[in-house]
Design brief:
single chain, binds flavin-adenine dinucleotide, globular, Polyamine Oxidase, Chain A, domain 2, eight-stranded mixed β-sheet, FAD/NAD(P)-binding domain, about 25% helix, about 30% strand, 2 domains, alpha+beta
């Protein structure tokens, strides 16, 4: 079979890896690199994990993938000093209670590892998928056309899928109507940033939700780099506001919470994720129209984390292999 997969995040790459053992697979990705929300932003010599911060495994299937990544030295555990701030009240600093894994030297290593042997067309945003005479035709935003696909898999966030899914697909009405939530991420770096006494902080009851000392993760060097995520509530309200205003608001929140003025840092940048996470838990695992040979996978088919993205892509690929 000739299979097209749209989206080179973890779900799409996992699915592509398994299916490519028996089929011809092409992955189309709109960004300039693979990994999606499991990515690493480079700025000059600095690196920030500006999406997913760490990975946890609950299922045996995902744990064996984690074991393989550890063996291949793609990830390693992050023994962070962790604390929480809940409505202004700080907890004691302690170790993470569970094993948390991170890519080395960046989260995007996982996507790069999976993509190594795949045919991935980056910088290629698919704008339209049409179904004619039992094959699929993909058209990019630049008007390039890719044809003769027997099977198309959408591995993109649900909000983006709704705009792209061809008419008459059997599961079109089952796609959850909840909107994905936004998140605004600050990336800050300065040689003089102090040791705050913790490496990761979860925040509730404020416009910020998370702070990571990025360089406390393994193999990131010693140059101080901080990643701060806003809360989903705040980002949902302000995602389309003026970026300078958003940045200064988040910097001022960070000053109040951590008693440090990050606004004078040598480097500070803002990224806004419009589709960062799902609002509710789903139990679909994946969606499939067996007549039209169109499927969809992604974290949003389960819950908003890296493990769900992996499981969704993994289960869909095995279901397709069984029927081919
Ligand atoms: C700020 C933030 C923090 C997070 N923190 C954590 C965490 O600490 N731990 C955790 O487990 N999870 C975390 N997550 C969630 C985790 O990153 C996701 O669950 C997971 O990476 C989703 O993978 P995916 O393959 O389903 O989707 P994505 O990674 O979104 O992949 C979809 C891909 O499709 C591409 N695409 C979309 N439309 C098109 C198109 N038309 N044509 C071509 N390509 C297209 C996109 O560019 C993207 O690369 C976080 C997410 C964010 C944003």
């Amino acid at each position: 079979m000739n299979i097209a997969i749209i989206g080179a995040g973890l779900s799409g790459l996992t699915c592509a890896n398994i299916l490519s053992q028996q089929h011809q697979v092409t992955v189309f990705e709109k960004a300039r690199g693979v990994s999606g929300r499991l990515s690493t932003r480079r700025s000059e010599d600095l690196r920030f994990d500006h999406g997913a911060q760490f990975i946890r495994a609950r299922s045996d299937v995902f744990m064996s993938f984690i074991d393989e990544l550890v063996d291949q030295q793609i990830i390693s555990s992050w023994d962070a000093r962790f604390k929480e701030i809940n409505h202004g009240i700080s907890s004691e600093v302690e170790s993470f209670k569970q094993d948390n894994y991170v890519g080395i030297p960046g989260m995007n290593q996982i996507g790069k590892f999976l993509a190594k042997t795949l045919d991935v067309s980056i910088d290629t945003r698919i704008k339209e998928v049409t179904y004619k005479d039992k094959t699929h035709i993909l058209t990019t935003e630049n008007g390039d056309v890719f044809e003769h696909f027997d099977q198309v898999i959408f591995a993109i966030p649900s909000d983006q899928l709704i705009d792209l899914l061809p008419a008459n697909v059997s599961f079109a009405n089952e796609i959850p109507d909840f909107k994905m939530r936004a998140c605004a991420t600050l990336m800050i770096s300065d040689p003089n940033l102090p040791d705050f006494g913790f490496d990761a902080c979860q925040i509730t009851g404020h416009d910020l939700s998370w702070l990571s000392v990025n360089n406390s993760k393994p193999e990131r060097g010693n140059y101080p780099c901080i990643v701060i995520h806003s809360s989903h509530d705040w980002a949902d309200q302000h995602a389309f506001d003026d970026r300078d205003w958003m940045k200064s608001h988040l910097l001022s929140e960070a000053k109040d919470l951590f008693d440090y003025d990050f606004s004078s840092a040598k480097h500070s940048n803002l990224h806004v994720w419009l589709y960062s996470n799902i609002a509710k838990v789903n139990d679909a695992v994946y969606y499939r129209d067996e007549k039209m040979n169109i499927s969809a996978c992604g974290d949003w088919c389960l819950r908003g984390n890296v493990e769900s993205a992996y499981l969704s892509g993994y289960e869909l690929a095995h279901a397709l292999l069984e029927n081919s």
